[in-house]
């Protein structure tokens, strides 16, 4: 296998947990003893920093509204709140780089590319990334504002570029991204055209090993062979990674949209994808195998992901697997840790960052992981969204 192939495989496998023998493992089998521990030692905390991602919501605002939007676990009113302070994000990263073995940082939203740092072409975040070549930085975007200029700015310094596209058919894409028809159709069409143009330019950069074309799969919406094949073909054309995510209901009424692994994997196999013999095909809520790889000839290695928030297996293992989420406070003058996606627990980091208090900062991260060890979201039936925003979606 060539070096370039190794890079492709490593990037798609980086969040997939396997045994030393290369077999998929149920994460709940390896962590049950930890639940009897009351405090994490410094060594245990550092081990978590070495393998977990730090994921920033650099803005809660977005230029579309997907029917499955979790807003990174925040209520929908957060979509009206202010952008994060880029200087605080940079300062927090620098503190953690100095005191921990943190290796992976994600920038997400909302839609990160509508942050003024990008719109006003300041690019402070990109300049910071370039100064830290040993860190694996990722950018997660819906692709609308992923212009040729931004692509040229990030293509050599970011390890991963994720584009949430969900469908390559405009009508389907609009149905998924335009909850309650909040945007005029002609406006949506312009956005979709920009995405297609941006993907084409990105594909010509020959950095497919960095690019993940992502689709949240919804039953009877974008799970048809035609829809799935279009994503796979695009990934084959530009050697992107296809990434399919299991639909995560925000309300009980959305459970009908879930496409389980057995059903999806069978559909993908009929389209030429290949899975390992031990790839899990069940959706047992008491087990947790969050990431599964697959091969599609021509494309980079594929990935299927499950969050499973609220289910027993996911909640039991969350502290050991899920990202460390950092979000802007309502007034945008601070940052907080959000330990649990489905509960609105907040741990304010602002004072520790502004006073450069390393000991306090690490203690807050330790408290966050210890909170998750209690499995706080276990049994949660929905994501605690406001009733006023409950989607009367066109996806019905």
Quickly name the level 1 CATH class: Alpha Beta
Beta-strand content: 5-15%
Distance between the termini: 46 Å
Oligomerization: single chain
What is the 3D shape? globular
How many beta-strand elements? 11
CATH topology: TIM Barrel
Q: Which bin fits the share of residues in helices?
A: 25-40%
**Widest sheet, order of strands:** 7-8-6-5-4-3-2-1-9-10-11
Look at the structure and give the mean pLDDT. 92
Rg is 20 Å
Query: What is the string of helix and strand elements?
Result: HHEHEHHEHEHHEHEHEEHEEEHH
Main pleated-sheet profile: 11 strands, mixed
Question: DSSP helix count?
Answer: 13
Per CATH, which architecture?
Alpha-Beta Barrel
Q: How many structural domains?
A: 1
Which secondary-structure class do the elements indicate?
alpha/beta
CATH level 4 superfamily: Aldolase class I
Uncertain parts: 1-9
């Amino acid at each position: 296998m060539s070096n370039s192939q190794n890079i492709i495989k490593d990037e798609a496998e980086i969040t997939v947990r396997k045994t030393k023998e290369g077999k998929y493992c149920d994460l709940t089998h390896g962590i049950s003893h930890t639940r009897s521990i009351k405090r994490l030692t410094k060594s245990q905390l550092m081990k978590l920093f070495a393998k977990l991602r730090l994921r920033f919501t650099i803005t809660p605002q977005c230029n579309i509204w997907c029917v499955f939007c979790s807003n990174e676990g925040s209520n929908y009113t957060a979509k009206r709140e202010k952008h994060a302070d880029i200087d605080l994000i940079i300062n927090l990263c620098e503190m953690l780089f100095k005191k921990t073995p943190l290796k992976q940082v994600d920038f997400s939203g909302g839609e990160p590319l509508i942050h003024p740092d990008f719109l006003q072409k300041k690019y402070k975040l990109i300049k910071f990334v370039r100064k830290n070549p040993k860190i694996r930085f990722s950018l997660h975007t819906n692709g609308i504002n992923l212009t040729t200029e931004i692509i040229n700015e990030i293509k050599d310094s970011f390890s991963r570029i994720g584009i949430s596209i969900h469908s390559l058919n405009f009508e389907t894409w609009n149905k998924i991204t335009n909850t309650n028809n909040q945007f005029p159709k002609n406006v949506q069409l312009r956005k979709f055209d920009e995405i297609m143009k941006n993907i084409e330019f990105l594909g010509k950069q020959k950095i497919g090993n960095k690019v993940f074309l992502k689709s949240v799969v919804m039953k009877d919406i974008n799970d048809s062979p035609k829809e799935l094949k279009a994503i796979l073909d695009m990934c084959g054309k530009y050697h992107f990674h296809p990434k399919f995510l299991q639909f995560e209901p925000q309300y009980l009424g959305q459970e009908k949209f879930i496409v389980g692994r057995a059903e999806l994997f069978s559909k993908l196999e009929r389209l030429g994808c290949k899975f390992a013999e031990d790839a899990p095909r069940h959706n047992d809520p008491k087990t947790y195998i969050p990431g599964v790889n697959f091969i599609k000839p021509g494309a980079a290695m594929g990935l299927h992901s499950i969050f499973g928030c609220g289910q027993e297996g996911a909640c039991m293992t969350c502290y050991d697997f899920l990202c460390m989420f950092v979000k802007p406070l309502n007034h945008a003058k601070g940052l907080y840790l959000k330990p649990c996606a489905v509960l609105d627990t907040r741990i304010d980091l602002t004072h520790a960052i502004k006073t450069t208090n390393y000991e306090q900062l690490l203690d807050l991260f330790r408290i966050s992981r210890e909170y998750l060890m209690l499995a706080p979201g276990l049994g949660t039936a929905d994501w605690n969204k406001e009733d006023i925003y409950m989607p009367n979606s066109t996806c019905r």
